[in-house]
Every structure is written in structure tokens, then in C-alpha cells.
């Protein structure tokens, strides 16, 4: 008579263990479903923010080409804001001809830029010469410059391109450039202006400081005139611009894009702009 009771006890124990196991499995599935749901919502929000930022880039291109000069956007770094769907979009546009061109800037402008970024006179002079030697053909270094022997002496397994910079980021490889200095000068550098010195109408503070003879007083006067709405007309925009667009949704989701574009004009059958560079996020 005892055996059936024992069997019933064992069966009950198995059922309890089975129920416990099933509960654990169901809990795991529920947690997994919740996690996947959260991920899906996050990805959806990020996608919406991304395309809102893209809309900001397109809006900026349209603003730069508006026929009415009074409505045309100005590429001097000021912030433009508008709403797209439920996203708030902040846009800044910087004209590339207001930056220091790595392939065209004079020795004085390059040295002035590095000094303005915190380098001492000796370091600024050497970096200026090294930049020139990077872009200059031939194997003979300028005084205080750097060709392959100087790079090898510094323990580097590469030398200068001996030709034009292909990207702005390539300047990080120039002998003597450190991360602190690079972080300071990067926003003021370009390879697309073709100018020996920045255009003062568009130049940001660091690029203005690089212009020989302008001085702090002259730079401050230019910036003050811009702040008061004077000193720069919309029609004076160049053709190559870097646009930064940041979209912020109501729930705080953010996405940012940075694009360098070259305007081609609005003509029948012609793409009105060309994209030279496209970056996602805020990193350089």
C-alpha cells in the first residue's frame, strides 16, 4: 500500500520541477521579448533621428541656394534651427574657403595657425615646414622641415606623401603633430579652398588668428561685425561648405551628420551639389 503513495509523491515532485522549469523558461522568453522590444524601439528612434538629420542637410543645401539673397543662409558658422516632424534640428554651415588649406596655405599662415592653437614659435615653424614638405615633391627637406629621413629618425615607418594631402585627417601623420594640437586645428583645416589664406568673411576665430597682419584686434572686429548682423552678405558664400546637422527627438534620441558639399548651381539635368565627405556622429 505504500508503493502507490511513494509513486504519487515522486510524480508530484516531477510535476513541480516541470512547472518550475517551465516558469523559468517562460520568464526567460518574456525577458528576451522585452529586450528585443526595447531594442526595436531604440533602433526605430535612431532611424527616425538619422533621417531627420539628413533632412537637415538637405534643408541647408536648399537654404544656401535660395534665389532671394535676403533669405539665403550664410555659411559663417551661425546656427539655424527648424522642426521636422517631431524632431528639433540644429544646423551649422561653415564655408571651406574660411579655413586653412593644407595644400595651398602659405608658410606664414600655417605657422600662424599652429601658434594660435598653442604651439610655441619653434614648434609652429617646424610644423609649417613639415606640412609643406609633405605636399611638396622631391626628397630634399626645407630648413626645419621633414622628408623620409627625418621620419625614419623619429622611428616612423612612413614618410611624407610628396604630393597633395588627400584628406584633412592625413595631417595627423605629419611629423611633429600631436593629438592635442590636432584636436585644436582640425576644425580649421581644409583641402578644398585652394586659397593661400582664409577668406576673412567666413573664417572662424582660429582661422582668423592664422592670417598674418590681422592681429587680435582685427579678428575681434570681424567677429563683432558678424554678431551684429553686418560685415557678411549671403551672396558672398563660396561653393564648398561643411554642414553639421543634429536632430533631437521628443524622447531625447539624437543623431548627427556632417557633410562637406560642393554646390554646382541649379541647372536643368544637373545634380545641384556633390558630396565630398560624409560622416555620421560627432567624431572627427
Automatic annotation (TrEMBL):
Entry's family note: Belongs to the GSP K family.
One Pfam family per UniProt: T2SSK_1st
Domain of life: Bacteria
Signal peptide residue numbers: none
GO BP term (any one): protein secretion
InterPro entries: GspK, GspK_central_sf, T2SSK_SAM-like_1st
UniProt region (Disordered), positions on chain: 136-156
Subcellular location: Cell inner membrane
Main location: membrane
UniProt lineage: Bacteria, Pseudomonadati, Pseudomonadota, Gammaproteobacteria, Lysobacterales
Protein name per Swiss-Prot or TrEMBL: General secretion pathway protein GspK
Domain T2SS protein K first SAM-like: 88-192
